[in-house]
Automatic annotation (TrEMBL):
InterPro entries in alphabetical order: Ser/Thr_deHydtase_PyrdxlP-BS (IPR000634), Thr_synth_N (IPR029144), Thr_synth_N_sf (IPR037158), Thr_synthase-like (IPR004450), Threonine_Synthase (IPR051166), TrpB-like_PALP (IPR001926), TrpB-like_PALP_sf (IPR036052)
Alphabetical list of CDD domains matching this protein: Thr-synth_2
Keywords for this protein: Amino-acid biosynthesis, Lyase, Pyridoxal phosphate, Threonine biosynthesis
Organism lineage string: Bacteria, Pseudomonadati, Bacteroidota, Sphingobacteriia, Sphingobacteriales
The organism of origin for this protein: Mucilaginibacter gynuensis
Known pathway: Amino-acid biosynthesis; L-threonine biosynthesis; L-threonine from L-aspartate: step 5/5
Protein name: Threonine synthase
Cofactor(s), names only, from the UniProt record: pyridoxal 5'-phosphate
Record-stated family: Belongs to the threonine synthase family.
EC numbers for this chain: 4.2.3.1
Length: 436
């Protein structure tokens, strides 16, 4: 597998280099030079395969010989050791539950695969890997658990103070060992820009071996393609072969992975990019003007991203063909009041509790289906996090129905360990240098 930079298509690095560099020095993002099509026979017979089998075939198709087959198989079986069921709620409305991993969010796919691939590539005696990660809520917890105790790695999580849920904060800040948390007096975008600046800082790069666990790292996107194929496999088992995916979207890594799956030949008819008030992409899809704005705080906090990192990858996939992009991806955005209404509606219609991000995707799917009533594709909305992570923003009558998993109960009483930080890069740099 070779990858280029979205800012320089002539550059070419190996998968291992792309994983460790995270992003090219020219500030673009890595993209595969080739996105090989999977055998159509395999795709039309996906229903015969298990999730680990599908994941292996998809990963092998993308990575080529970057990891020997037996090692790749073992790595996937270890990383993706939880399910991603598609549940039918009504005719042609399905939820893809992506919250059955240890941090109860879809980020477990990316974080667990990434920690294992990095650990696999790290050689004995090499310098410690310093993993930097910015989070608006869910990435941080998944990365913390994915890397906890992984030898020769240290994770530094930056999160916006007061803008993540109580359980998300506990997941980020109570781990100790090789995981540390920085509580930034700013937004997710501030956290993300501190991390990105660190990657281009000569002094920090000389001192540390820096890498990122955000979806700017291609190792996060590869495993996120698996569940699109696996969802299709489940639909095939129910006699459905046409599909539309509604994807809760913040940093656009999730939908970016779906588009990679589509490029590999998965017959997805439509992507619905569902956002909260941070509607940079839906606004672009309507007006043609791409105008990142500072993020605003919402109750679907993990999607509070004003300048989505992965949009450059998506634009790159379509090169100059904006019309094709706009045809395949439709954008919808909702404010907090609409989000709460959607949570209540989902509960009233199906006695099913969703998190605020998932509610937005459901609403977008329903709105799309109303406008496209002649289309008989199965509509699948992605459930990106377990609702128990957001008890305070879900109306009490619905929240009272949530069954809280054991892993959350275990967080109770654990002490928060976090260092407060300003949004000034000089402070972040000083912290890193003083805490080697
Ligand atoms: N939604 C994210 C924000 C970071 O996005 P990522 O996909 O680049 O890690 C979060 O929950 O932290």
């Amino acid at each position: 597998m070779k990858l280029y930079s979205t800012n320089n298509t002539a550059a070419s690095v190996s998968f291992k280099e792309a994983v460790f560099n995270s992003m090219p020095q020219d500030k673009g993002l890595y993209m595969p030079v080739n996105i090989p099509q999977l055998d159509p026979e395999f795709i039309s017979n996906l229903d015969k395969y298990t999730l680990p089998e599908i994941a292996f075939r998809v990963a092998k198709n993308l990575l080529g010989d970057a990891v020997p087959e037996a090692d790749l198989k073992a790595l996937i079986e270890d990383a993706i050791n939880f399910d991603a069921p598609v549940v039918e709620l009504e005719e042609d409305v399905y939820v893809l539950e992506l919250f059955h991993g240890p941090s109860l969010a879809f980020k477990d796919f990316g974080a667990r695969f990434m920690s294992r691939i990095m650990s696999y590539f790290l050689e004995a005696g090499e310098k410690q890997l310093d993993v930097l990660v910015a989070t608006s809520g869910d990435t941080g917890g998944a990365v913390a658990l994915g890397f906890l105790g992984v030898p020769n790695t240290r994770v530094t999580i930056l999160y916006p103070k007061g803008k993540v849920s109580g359980i998300q904060e506990q997941q980020l800040t109570t781990n100790g060992q090789n995981i540390r948390a920085l509580e930034v007096e700013g937004t997710f975008d501030d956290c993300q820009s501190l991390v990105k600046q660190a990657f281009t800082d000569a002094e920090l790069n000389a001192e540390f071996r820096l890498t990122s666990a955000n979806s700017i790292n291609i190792a996060r996107l590869v495993p996120q393609t698996f569940y699109y194929f696996n969802a299709y496999a489940q639909l095939l088992r129910q006699g459905k072969s046409k599909v539309v995916f509604a994807v809760p979207s913040g940093n656009f890594g999730n939908i970016g992975a779906g588009l990679l799956a589509w490029k590999m030949g998965l017959p997805i008819e439509q992507f619905i990019a569902a956002t909260n008030a941070n509607d940079t992409v839906p606004a672009f899809l309507k007006t043609g003007v791409y105008e990142p704005k500072p993020s605003v705080q919402t109750i679907s906090n993990a999607m509070d991203v004003g300048n989505p990192s992965n949009w450059v990858r998506i634009a790159d996939l379509f090169k100059e063909d904006t019309e094709a992009l706009k045809k395949l991806i439709i954008g919808y955005s909702y404010d907090d009041a609409e989000t709460v209404t959607a949570i209540e509606q989902v509960y009233d219609d199906y006695q099913y509790v969703v998190c605020p991000h998932t509610a937005i995707a459901w609403q977008a799917l329903k709105d799309w289906q109303i406008r496209n009533s002649e289309n008989d594709a199965a509509g699948v909305f992605l459930s990106t996090a377990h609702p128990c992570k957001f008890p305070d923003v879900i109306p009490a009558r619905v929240a009272s129905k949530i069954v809280v998993p054991e892993v959350v109960k275990e967080l109770e009483g654990k002490a928060k360990q976090a260092v407060e930080l300003s949004t000034d890069f000089a402070d972040f740099k000083a912290y890193l240098l003083a805490n080697k």
